[in-house]
Write a structure and sequence with these properties.
The structure is a single chain. By secondary structure, the chain is an alpha+beta fold. It has a five-stranded mixed sheet, with helices on one face. Helix 2 crosses helix 3. The two termini are 15 Å apart. The model has no long low-confidence stretch (mean pLDDT 96).
Amino acid sequence: MSGAVEARLTELGLTLPAVVPPLAAYQPAVISGAYVFTAGQLPMVDGKLPVTGKVGAEVTAEEAKELAAVCALNALAAVKSVVGDLDRVARVVKVVGFVASAADFTGQPGVLNGASELLGEVFGEKGVHARSAVGVAVLPLDAPVEVELQVELTPAE
């Protein structure tokens, strides 16, 4: 099933990917009440990371910003996997992003703008959210960035 949100993704030249399979003992997304919580999503493309390493060292901030958008797209795929239709998203509530950072890198908010801007382009006002951008020493598989979402759903019909 697809609707207005997926049509908007198409207009933006984006394709909703298949859900990235879990790397350990967790689910890609779960519903609790009126909310969907996603697991942290890596910037996997066709089952692999296009780039690895620390932002501010092996990975530029601009590359990482693009990867954060990929993470957000993967998170939307995880949301769809449990709700069936992204048009049920009433709003994006919270984005949490982790940036594997070189010791002197302080541009985590700019990196996470990749995810935030994508969500704004896709959902408009419903994509405006609270956010945390956290620098960390290392992420799974040496990924440069990881993003998780919390979205509120409209009531099921």
